[in-house]
Amino acid sequence: MRIDSVRSDPRRRCFLVRTARGEFEFPWAQLKVVPSPSDPVVSAAPDPELGREAFTYSLASGAEDSVHIDHVLRFVGDPEYERKELLYALTLEAIASLDTSGRSKRSLARQLGTSLAQVLRLLDTANSRKSVDQMVRLLGALGRSVELRVGVAEGAGGTVPARRRPTRTATTPATARGARGGRSRRA
């Protein structure tokens, strides 16, 4: 993903990073070289030397650093980025499992009822057009199980907002029984 623009917001103490998928807020606290009121950001722009997949910022003191878009997406918890990271981890596990199992890719394709080309696509770490379901099936065929853990996301402060239950309103006997006065409809 390429960065279209980036600007510094000293009031909110963050960078606003704009991509084709939207604008993301990236706090200064996540930076290696942190700006301050005495050492403010003087420039911030997408870095063409890094393929516009990162931005470089400079401080008044002359210090500078670059931040890759992956770092921004990981911080904001972008679902598409997290899906690709999960698929990458599952693919690496499948490759390692296949190597240790001693099985051929062709026998694996027969067991899954698919083609050898599809198994090769599933084992390609660069391919993100596969589903988690396909990877779970592949790992199951290799004798591995996949466990899913759900936890509080980093940076969420460790609290989960409580769900509010809808409040019940007082009803009169006529409205509680319905329009038919309590009589049920029988077929």
Write up this protein.
- This protein is α+β, with helices and mostly antiparallel strands.
- It has helices at 69-76, 79-101, 105-112, 116-122, 132-141, 173-177; strands at 3-9, 14-19, 22-27, 41-46, 54-59, 64-68.
- The radius of gyration is 26 Å and the shape is elongated.
- Mean pLDDT is 86; it is low at 157-182.
List the helices and strands and how they pair.
Blueprint: E1 3-9, E2 14-19, E3 22-27, E4 41-46, E5 54-59, E6 64-68, H1 69-76, H2 79-101, H3 105-112, H4 116-122, H5 132-141, H6 173-177
Antiparallel strand pairs: 1-2, 2-3, 4-5, 5-6
Helix pairs in contact: 2-5, 3-4
Features:
434 Repressor (Amino-terminal Domain), 6 helices, 3-stranded antiparallel β-sheet, about 190 residues, alpha+beta, 2 domains, elongated
Condensed summary:
This protein has 187 residues and is α+β, with helices and mostly antiparallel strands.
Overall residue-averaged pLDDT value: 86
The largest β sheet comes out as: 3 strands, antiparallel
The percent of residues in helical segments reads 25-40%
Give the amount of beta strand, in percent: 15-25%
DSSP strand count:
6
**End-to-end CA span:** 60 Å
What is the helix/strand order? EEEEEEHHHHHH
Strand order in the sheet with the most strands: 1-2-3
- Structural class comes to alpha+beta
Bulk shape: elongated
Whole-number count of domains: 2
Please tell me how large the radius of gyration is. Answer: 26 Å
Low-confidence stretches: 157-182
The helix count comes to 6
